[in-house]
Amino acid sequence: MLRPWELNVAIERESAMAIHVQIAQQIISDIQNGRFTAGTALPGTRDLAKKIKVNRKTIIQAYEELVAQGWLVCENKRGTFISSKASSIKPGTATKSVSLAFSTEPIASNSNQTADRIALNADLADDRLIPFEMIARAMRHALIMCARQTPCNVNDAKGNLNLRLALMHMLNAERGLHANAEEICTLASSQMGLYVIAKTITQVNDFVVLEQLSNPRAREAFADCGANILNVAHDHDGIDMANLELLCVQYKIRAVYVTPHHQIPTTIRMSAQRRLALLQLAIQYDFLIIEEDAGHEYNFNNSSSLAISSSTQSKHLIYLGSLNKVFGASLDLGYLVANKAMIALCADRIRLIDGQADPVKQMAITELLNNGEIKRHRARTLKVYQARQAGMIALIEDELAEFVSFRAPESGLAIWLEVKPWIDMVRLQADATSEKISLSLASDYASSKHPISAIRLGYAHLSIAEMTQGIQRLKAALISQQLKLLRA
């Protein structure tokens, strides 16, 4: 296709900003100032790379970022064009505290939001950043492979062997595990993994320990299997070891469930000392540690603790992870890592629940792991979510300082807000509903529904504009509390 103009891009090669980001920002600026309109064809990646003397992969990366966010569309065998949706973004939507980076403001609507309600309660990946073309390509390859195989089945309840090998390489390299393929099984989701674990290890009236505030899905899974749930205290370093040892003395503990990398819901990272102490207690009192590695993919301070399951004490360890925070529900995959005997028992349960895994999905994920696309996608979205976290923190500090306090989390896609004690949390929930926002209160994570003055605030699935509106609505709900108190 003939391009009637040349794209001139000014590159500052000494800038700390990545070149592909500079290119993307300039294209966005040209769209917003009216230079490029919907349907305008962009130069091919080879031509533009040659013109501005950069590697072609740099141009591809810039284009992929903009396609993923809706600024551009790519048409097979025709080229790359300005999206018809591009004109729906108005310049100058950043707040006074937040710089509007190109990667934080996708254009398309977010499926996590309704037309007029903002979900501050969800720590989800942003569907608008999902690289659908990349996924579609992998799925197409998987379908072709399945069509050529007879039969196209995953006979092993542990999952596709090539997928387990790909997961093994990722987990051993990134999280310090010592697993082999026979010590890994795959599942449809981490929730399925929780239930399989609970069903496999728990007998009626067994004692299972969760932190006082913990993942409600885990609490429900173990309770459904007849376990007695014991609650252990926790603080800014993680689980309270003295309290846990007291429980071990009083009861025969079957398992302790923790989320040490990004504690659900408080976002605290368990200290290395507490992790080691927990493992030592597990050996001493012979209980299992069920480690759900929430938030590992998104670590914002370049320091990461190895998983508890990196220990060679596999007899006492079950590791649970998923791709939920990477691709959301669109291409979720759960995985369990434990000793071979435990994985065999879990596989028997999986066979009863889900006798036929999805071979196309498993093959597609295997390809994305092996060719590095998942790693590259995580690296791209890490920058987006880090910018959004900074934006949300700035908004909280500007708008909510008199109502809440917090510590910036080191990882994960949520922030834990401790609310001033004079705020009535039951009324706040009602006022939030009136303001058309959804909140996740601390009581949602507790064993009882007694009000606790804290909120878990999701931000990664929200653009800056959506965050701003959501925080302003939350402020209005808190001010309503303030006015009611003054009238009393």
Describe this structure in words.
A seven-stranded mixed beta sheet has the order 4-12-11-10-9-5-6, sandwiched between helices. A four-stranded antiparallel beta sheet has the order 13-14-17-16, with no helix packed on it. 42% of the residues lie in helices and 14% in strands. It has 488 residues and is α/β, with parallel strands linked by helices. The longest helix has 27 residues, at 373-399. It folds into three domains: 19-89, Orthogonal Bundle (Arc Repressor Mutant, subunit A), CATH 1.10.10.10; 118-128 and 382-487, Aspartate Aminotransferase, domain 1, CATH 3.90.1150.10; 154-355, Type I PLP-dependent aspartate aminotransferase-like (Major domain) (Aspartate Aminotransferase, domain 2, 3-Layer(aba) Sandwich), CATH 3.40.640. It is built from 15 helices and 17 strands. α7 links the parallel β5 (207-211) and β6 (228-232).
Quaternary state reads: single chain
What is the radius of gyration computed over CA atoms, rounded to a whole number of angstroms?
24 Å
Highest CATH level, the class of the largest domain = Alpha Beta
The overall strand count is: 17
Strand arrangement, major sheet: 4-12-11-10-9-5-6
* Proportion of residues in extended strands: 5-15%
Question: What is the architecture of the largest domain at the second tier of CATH?
Answer: 3-Layer(aba) Sandwich
| SS content category | alpha/beta
Query: What is the 3D form?
Result: globular
Question: How are the elements arranged and paired?
Answer:
Blueprint: H1 19-32, H2 45-52, H3 56-69, E1 72-75, E2 79-82, E3 118-119, H4 132-148, H5 161-175, E4 184-187, H6 190-201, E5 207-211, H7 216-224, E6 228-232, E7 234-235, E8 238-239, H8 241-250, E9 253-258, H9 272-285, E10 288-292, E11 317-322, H10 324-327, E12 334-337, H11 340-353, H12 359-370, H13 373-399, E13 404-406, E14 414-419, H14 425-434, E15 437-438, E16 440-441, E17 454-458, H15 464-487
Parallel strand pairs: 3-15, 5-6, 5-9, 9-10, 10-11
Antiparallel strand pairs: 1-2, 4-12, 7-8, 11-12, 13-14, 14-17, 16-17
